[in-house]
Amino acid sequence: MENELISTAQLEELIDAKKVKDIRQIFESVPTIDIAEACDDIEDVKKLVFIFKCVKSEYTAELFTELNPDVKEELIRILSDDQLADILEQQFTDDLVDDIEDMPANLVTRILRNVPKERRSTINRLLNYKENTAGSIMTTELLSLLDTLTADEAISKIRKIGKEKETIYTLFIIDNKRNLVGTLDLDDLIFAKGDEKLADLMNRDFVTVNVNTDQEEVANMVKRYDLNAIAVVNNENRLVGLCTIDDIVDVIEEEATEDVAALAHVTPLEDSYLDTPAWRMAMKCVPWIVVLLILGTFTTMVLDKLQGQQVFLMMPILIAFVPTLMDTGGNAGGQTIALMIRGLATKEFTPKDFFRVILKEALSALMVSSVILVFSFIWFTIEQYTGIVQNVGINGSIDGVAPTIWNGKCWDPEIAGEFAKSVIKVSATVSITLFAASFIAKIVAVLLPLGVAALKKDPAIVAQPLLTTIVDVLALISYLGIATLAFQVL
Amino acid sequence: MENELISTAQLEELIDAKKVKDIRQIFESVPTIDIAEACDDIEDVKKLVFIFKCVKSEYTAELFTELNPDVKEELIRILSDDQLADILEQQFTDDLVDDIEDMPANLVTRILRNVPKERRSTINRLLNYKENTAGSIMTTELLSLLDTLTADEAISKIRKIGKEKETIYTLFIIDNKRNLVGTLDLDDLIFAKGDEKLADLMNRDFVTVNVNTDQEEVANMVKRYDLNAIAVVNNENRLVGLCTIDDIVDVIEEEATEDVAALAHVTPLEDSYLDTPAWRMAMKCVPWIVVLLILGTFTTMVLDKLQGQQVFLMMPILIAFVPTLMDTGGNAGGQTIALMIRGLATKEFTPKDFFRVILKEALSALMVSSVILVFSFIWFTIEQYTGIVQNVGINGSIDGVAPTIWNGKCWDPEIAGEFAKSVIKVSATVSITLFAASFIAKIVAVLLPLGVAALKKDPAIVAQPLLTTIVDVLALISYLGIATLAFQVL
User: Fold this and answer.
1) Which residue of A has its CA nearest to B208?
2) Residue B2 pLDDT exceeds 50
């Protein structure tokens, strides 16, 4: 009843004591995925063979599917041909293909040797579809019914052949030329009168995807049309497979994790987190860090030139605001690019909505930047009056004499006035630059992913690394211009 | 049939010409969501009333569900009580509750007035569940069957009452005390012999969630156990509702978008992107930017102190590397925190796996930082020899005479030697600091979200903003220490 889990130790004990009955009982009362996780941690995989001997193959086939890839490979090595064939027979072809894709060649051979010839050719065909397409995630075990059948005939056919199919909740209706003409939800069939023809019951407003459609697009279709399963057709528009909602759930999560990873400059992990060794994790991080380090050279270059400029030598306090400038620009751009990348990924808009999106973002950027302008002006002024950062005037002209709130210096009106002027100039310079930097950052963050998406590249991967560098460099150059203006003209 | 879409203009034309038959035909051949999107863009909502008059209410109810919230509200205002009651009767209670939650009070009253009393109390109960819990996303229209029924009896009962239920693909089996004792997939019922008892057919290893369980946890359960629907029980363990996989798909996507948003420092949008006005988008961005700006004060403070230090005055080139330092630290930490936040969200690990995760990340951090150390040392040396950044020696001692690859200066062995020494010192200082900064960043990025998650707060929201500031400050302080050491001791 309640989620009563099974521990690895308990399971091992039962196996060691050869308690066949108890082991069978566990499969009745504990969800298979929980048993599989207990199995994964058993050190000696040979012990698992006992389970495969004493439990019914309909249970062990499911167990096998849920096991960790390493344990699975080890098992394929040590199971007998008969045991293996039994398990493979009960597996859905799409699960099997997923397994095979990551296995060493000798194990793949062993698997293919133990499945019937016809299935072997299906597996080989599925293996040939490009990764992340509908073809690569679809299953071929679907139920198609002739549109001339009655509801009762259909139900008895389902009872006869439905058990080996991936799903019977969505039925695919074909005409006598084997063209897909409709889909039928099982519940509509159940509620139908026995003598109604499928042709009258089926939905004619169904949607399909091509085998080469990207899995993200497939997920968006299933979600949009609220489907349990979607038909996959080949280039000749023949029904070749279906994708079910549980595969789609995995796709949605995978794509989301990919978006998060790309935004954080890391290649997504292929295995689960805990199964990924540290060195492989490092490998996912290093290339990005190095690329960003190289891109960062531009920023170093600009800053190196910048700090030699007259205005920054005169007012070293301006250099102290460089991190704030870069962080705020980066944050402002990062917000927008995240919205853009998720929006494009979940098809909230497409590059076709270009002008609407630009206009909306430009307006929003203007508002955000204006708030930043006002707030940062006030905040930077406070920072200087409290002495958090020290404004010592041009070339240190008021160093040590300027009145801040805490230093108890006499508020000589002339010095106080000069200090106030200096503070306002610095605050204005930095906050105006922040305004420009965040506005530019947000606009670049819209144009970059939209442009990349229009070129049919992945915006998450291509657009994101460029953003920081472009924004940093533009922000620093604006800073020089605005500072020069402020301290020479004003 | 291929996805033949309907445009707003086409639809409006049919309504204006009062082509009842054609409009009905559209509902047969075009998916409702596509019709709904065409309806959303019709300027005069009154025109839509014609559709609700002439099309069967089973279609219009679905259409109503899919409409944009604004259009929906407008319709509720102008439809007659009878029309409204018709539509509401066909709506699932969970959809209705979702709508009501965002509506002005007078429309809520209008809706509640047009549903039967019993349903009104269900709606009120559902409205009281806390947001983002199982209770708030569940539906109460579930099919429960007594365990003493036979398969045939069950099927005929389903045929009679199943049509009003949210799903019949997962059936909930209760005993005569109304306790939930099992679940049964519809396909198992279809494949069963007619006289088999449900008690013998049902799965006893089912899982349930409490009404107060967080929706993210519900999604993880449904995914983990590969379910079509999961039972929701109250604190007395009575069955009160169910969550179906299509609600779960929305939850998964919502949570993923929330993670992306949090990593990018923006509050997630509530409506779809294109429906969110620019000012509201700005409101989602501003608070975070301001908080980060305030947090950035620490960095400004530290850098302000730093640049007055002897070593940085002597070697201004070191200041040019500050952005690289901060960016690389931020990137290294960002990678790790993203993996942590996604891992925690998708339950790949929990705070209980603390030590395993720390160890793995520490190892990975060591490897990544070592690569950064070696690579950046080489890269910074190249930068200086090519003159991308100018190493002018201590206090400009070799300014203008130092030999770089492009400047054609004579390679006087003494000056070349001094230049080489200066270059190596700078490269070593910066790359050792980078090593420290990225290692520290990655460790902080593990400890922070794990700590926050252990305190049951959302790591995406709490941990992320703190990371940048902590890492920036630590990196700058390390920089001062290492630079002082390098240029005074070496």
Assistant:
1) A2
2) no
